[in-house]
């Protein structure tokens, strides 16, 4: 018995419609798979970018600034840029201006700097000697510093405590009223201008070992050199402050973008200048340079200067250098 023609047509129509619906559903599923793959890839890219930004925003810089090395000028730039570049600048003030931190204060400072997430990225600065974060159980921050010709720094400080500077001209310094020249002080062999007092930059870079505080200690000098190369991101020289700022802007633009332009076009190029300072006589210079303390301090300066020039050569002069990744295996498919 044959079905009516209308019945066959209806069955055929139902079959065609059902087939189209199945094909459509298959296409929808394929489209969903593509969308899911695209979303997964996008989410992975975003997650990777967020991880990279988090790492970038975890940056902590320690500037254990040596006195009378143009540190105020440099820190002034950082304070001016911090709001614009969205980072924090914090001054670490140590009781009685001590350059040596007690062990418990080293630990607490390292802990706070590491875990104070709300302050990151951050630049911490203060007049204290280098100390080792990993030794205390914390990740190493980025250390930076400036070093100055030792005799120039010594003379600058000698007159600074007498006459002050143009940064805070009304502040009375501890030697106010004492107008004795550096030449006369050296000639009279007074304790204040004893060449042993030159022993400052070596201890700052040497650290907190007992030998670091002993004037003329050869181990301390060797340790200071080693730290400059292995534990500091960058050590510049006061006499080439502009290049120091340029290197930091190139290396850490997240924090120092615009630093060089600000330095060149604002009043930050020489923020603190001693009001009165006399050039020492050749006789005085000869006496100071005969001291083994000056010779060791100057050796550290020359070492730092040579290393700074090496870093500068391969950063400022070779700006077209590129680093690319090749022959990556196994291949990664986005």
From TrEMBL:
Q: Which molecular function GO terms apply here?
A: heparan sulfate 2-sulfotransferase activity
- One GO cellular component, as annotated: Golgi membrane
Span-the-membrane segments of this chain are 6-26
Q: Which Pfam families does this chain map to?
A: Sulfotransfer_2
User: How is this protein situated with respect to the membrane?
Assistant: Single-pass type II membrane protein
Q: Does the keyword Disulfide bond apply?
A: yes
**GO biological process terms on file:** heparan sulfate proteoglycan biosynthetic process
Q: Does the keyword Cell membrane apply?
A: no
Xref: InterPro entries: Heparan_SO4_2-O-STrfase (IPR007734), P-loop_NTPase (IPR027417), Sulfotransferase (IPR005331)
Q: What PANTHER family does the annotation carry?
A: HEPARAN SULFATE 2-O-SULFOTRANSFERASE, HEPARAN SULFATE 2-O-SULFOTRANSFERASE 1
Subunit comment: Homotrimer.
Which family does the similarity line name? Answer: Belongs to the sulfotransferase 3 family.
User: This chain belongs to which protein, by name?
Assistant: Heparin sulfate O-sulfotransferase
Please report the organism this UniProt entry assigns to the protein.
Answer: Henosepilachna vigintioctopunctata
């Amino acid at each position: 018995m044959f079905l009516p023609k209308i019945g066959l047509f209806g069955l055929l129509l139902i079959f065609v419609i059902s087939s189209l619906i199945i094909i459509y559903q298959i296409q929808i599923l394929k489209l969903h798979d593509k969308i899911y793959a695209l979303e997964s890839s996008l989410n992975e890219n975003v997650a990777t970018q967020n991880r990279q930004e988090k790492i970038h925003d975890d940056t902590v810089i320690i500037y254990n600034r040596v006195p009378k090395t143009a540190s105020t000028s440099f820190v002034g730039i950082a304070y001016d840029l911090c709001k614009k570049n969205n980072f924090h600048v914090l001054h670490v003030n140590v009781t009685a201006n001590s350059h040596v931190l007690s062990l418990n204060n080293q630990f607490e400072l390292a802990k706070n700097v590491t875990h104070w997430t709300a302050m990151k990225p951050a630049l911490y600065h203060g007049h204290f000697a280098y100390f080792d974060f990993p030794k205390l159980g914390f990740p190493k921050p980025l250390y930076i510093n400036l070093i100055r010709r030792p005799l120039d720094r010594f003379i600058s400080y000698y007159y600074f405590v007498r006459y002050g500077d143009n940064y805070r001209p009304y502040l009375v310094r501890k030697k106010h009223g004492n107008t004795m020249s550096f030449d006369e002080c050296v000639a009279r062999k007074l304790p204040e201008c004893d060449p042993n007092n030159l022993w400052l930059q070596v201890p700052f870079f040497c650290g907190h070992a007992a030998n670091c505080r002993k004037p003329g200690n050869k181990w301390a000098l060797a340790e200071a050199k080693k730290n400059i190369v292995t534990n500091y991101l960058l050590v510049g020289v006061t006499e080439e402050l502009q290049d120091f700022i340029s290197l930091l802007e190139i290396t850490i633009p997240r924090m120092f973008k615009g630093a060089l332009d600000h330095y060149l076009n604002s009043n930050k190029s020489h923020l603190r200048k001693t009001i009165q300072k006399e050039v020492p006589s050749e006789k005085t210079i000869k006496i100071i340079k005969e001291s083994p303390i000056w010779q060791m301090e100057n050796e550290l300066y020359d070492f730092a200067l040579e290393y700074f020039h090496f870093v500068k050569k391969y950063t400022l002069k070779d700006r077209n250098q590129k680093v690319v990744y090749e022959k990556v295996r196994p291949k990664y498919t986005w």
